[in-house]
Amino acid sequence: MRSWSIPVGRLFGVELRIHLTFFLLLIFVSWTEYNAHGSANGGRDLALVAIVLACVCAHEAAHMLIGRRMGMTPKAVILLPLTGVTLYEESRTERLAAGFAWRREIRLALIGPLINMILAVLAAMVISGAAPSVNLWKWPFFVPSNLPRSLVWANIYIAGLNLLPAYPLDGGRILRAMLSRGPNGAMATRRAVSISTTLAMILVIAGLFRDTWLTIIGIIIFSAAQLEERAIVFQSVLDNVRLEEVMLTDFATLSPADTLEDALDKAVHSLQDDFPVVRGSDMVGVISRQKILDALRVEGNGYVQAVMNKIFEVSVRQESLGSAFRKLTARNSSIIPVVEDQRLIGIVTLQNLMHSMALLAESRKLRRPE
Q1: Domain of residue 250, residue span
Q2: Residue 33 shares a structural domain with residue 140
Q3: Helical H runs in the chain?
Q4: Cβ atoms 112, 170 nearer than 8 A
Q5: Is the pTM of this model over 0.70?
Q6: Exposed (0-12), middle (13-18) or buried (19+): which is 124, by Cβ within 10 Å?
Q7: Residues 26 and 168 in one domain
Q8: Does some domain include residue 220?
């Protein structure tokens, strides 16, 4: 999710990120204006891109609010110039696999374009009443020199373009929903992504011979499709990979009787950021390198037992990565001990989990049959 996007805040409590293609859009708008008029107006160009961003935010906010009413839990949204990619909790996959869920997916997909059309109508009514001199029907419809007209047409364009059968645009989601009426929802998503990639390439090539805007739209669709494909692969890793495949079996432990200075010395000579605390054969707590440092700064040297976290989750080797992630986030923790017959046999840390998931996702993409 963090590749090619930057965090900008939260929308209804959900992390909001902007994809770097928005900067490509700003450059393209400025370049188009310069070619047409011999100069570019940076302030108006930026305002035009901000209008697009606001329209996409409204589009995605509608998806999220309706999605929550359907029982989906969004984790983050990545905004692109035409649409957004919403990352949901793992339970979304299970709910959408239920009977008749494809109909819910279609209803959810249609709400975004509908909101944009409603906003376009409202904006047209307000602008026509407040500023009759603004000609909403004069070509070109989308230009920095007429921002009120651009506000109306940005919503119309976003609504119309999102109905293209290109995943993850809303039209592509409808296509995916129709394909996923069978038992294999992941395969339906892959097919929809393949269709999207093909359509994106057609638009890019067509833009080279006709309108450069087609190339920009193709690039945006391609970027969105790649984000969705990565999400599919990572979801597959979460569902199918067991902890025994990624857990660390060669790791350092601390004793509750260790002083914080001794614990820090061990941490310095280890690549671990998190440590299980073991008394004899029993695990009694967990502690992080950062917590050791913080305790030393605030309280001075003491014992690990006094500052370790005594409430922690444990897993067994057969659990999935998805289960491990849920336990990590539930406790806001960064380490999960793996036990067998009440004996510590390995650890999974957030650090090594993210590293392992990236490698596993890439290996699955390489091994996936055509």
Answers
A1: 244-363
A2: yes
A3: 21-37, 42-69, 91-96, 101-130, 147-161, 170-179, 185-209, 212-240, 260-268, 289-299, 304-307, 321-330, 350-367
A4: yes
A5: no
A6: buried
A7: yes
A8: no
Say if CB 134 and CB 146 are below 8 A apart. Answer: yes
* Pair (36, 175) in one structural domain: yes
Supply the pLDDT for residue 370. Answer: 46
30 alpha-carbon distance from chain centroid? 28
CA 71 from centre of chain: 18
CA distance 145 to 82: 21
| Residue finishing a domain among 193, 210, 226 | 193
Can you give the pLDDT at residue 94? 45
Q: What is the Cα–Cα distance from 153 to 123, expressed in whole angstroms?
A: 10
Do both 248 and 159 map to the same domain?
Answer: no
User: Which structure tokens are listed for 2?
Assistant: 């963090």
Q: Give the C-alpha separation, 227 to 168, whole Å.
A: 9
Sequence letter at residue 115: I
Phi and psi at 14, nearest 5°, equal -105, 135
Q: Which single residue is written with the structure tokens 């645009």?
A: 169
In a domain, 102, yes or no: yes
Residue 232 lies in a domain: no
Residues 6+ apart with CB under 8 A from 97: 185
Task: Report how far apart, in Å, the C-alpha atoms of 305 and of each of 124, 276, 284, 285 are.
Answer: 66, 12, 9, 8
For 87, residues 6+ apart whose C-beta sits below 8 A from its C-beta are 1, 74, 75, 76, 77, 78, 231
> Using one digit for the tens of pLDDT, what is the confidence trace for 266-311?
888 887 888 889 888 778 888 988 899 999 998 889 999 999 988 8
Q: Count how many domains the chain has.
A: 2
pLDDT exceeds 70 at position 334: yes
